[in-house]
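Protein modeling request. Please complete all fields; requests missing the sequence field cannot be processed.
Requester role: graduate student
Desired output: 3D structure, token encoding
Chains: 1
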Amino acid sequence: MRSAGWLFLLCCFLMPATAQKGDAQKILEALAKRYDQAKSFAMEGKITTLKKSPSSETKVTLTFDLVFQKPNKFRLVLKDPQGKVQQMFVSDGNEMFLEFPALKQVMKRPAPKSGVPLPGGNIMTGSLKEQLAKVKEAKIVGEEKLGQRKVKVIKVTAEDGTTAQLWVANDTLWQVKVTIEGARFAKSAAGKEQPNPFLEAMKQTTITQTITFTKVTFNPKIAQTTFSYKLPAGFKVLEKFELPTQPSAKPAP
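Delivered output (253 residues):
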């Protein structure tokens, strides 16, 4: 569920309604223009995912390092707090590799024709300006100090009620926060079949994901070796990931 926040953030941006014009919309348009005009960028930061239910509460934090060069070259590395790589995405412009070190497996696919990976694993295609222009509603809800920066906090809302907050300063995105109400997701996923225990549990679950960017550099100098991928020793390339199987129990004597 680490990438769920990004999925729902994209849903916010892809709603077929037109955003209301105003100060918030002007900020979003300037933000989109800066990212769309950049030929490349590098970002570092962390993702914090908080999952709450009546019976439990879990918090997972990952750091990320993303380098992107238009139209479709990128390297995204996700690490746990101890610095151990959890996932890696690499595109050399022709092929894309998704590496899971814990499984010692790599999935290879044709590289997307264009697009940038988002922390969490999704790939966003198309102009950011086009996507932001389709937000149903956007408004400034306050000003805060994030680190040493004074930022404006903008709330965007989708037609289904899903909301996200964006912390923006100097036409740069420094933080995103999305809250996912499990009840809304379960309602949209429910069918006419028998009751689903998973969906019933989800109705009582809330997921909040915060992505903080500690460093953002536009048009950095990038060594082309950044986008090359070498299969680590002992890893194998597969069409789809294979989950480890439980060892079979020994028969009783």
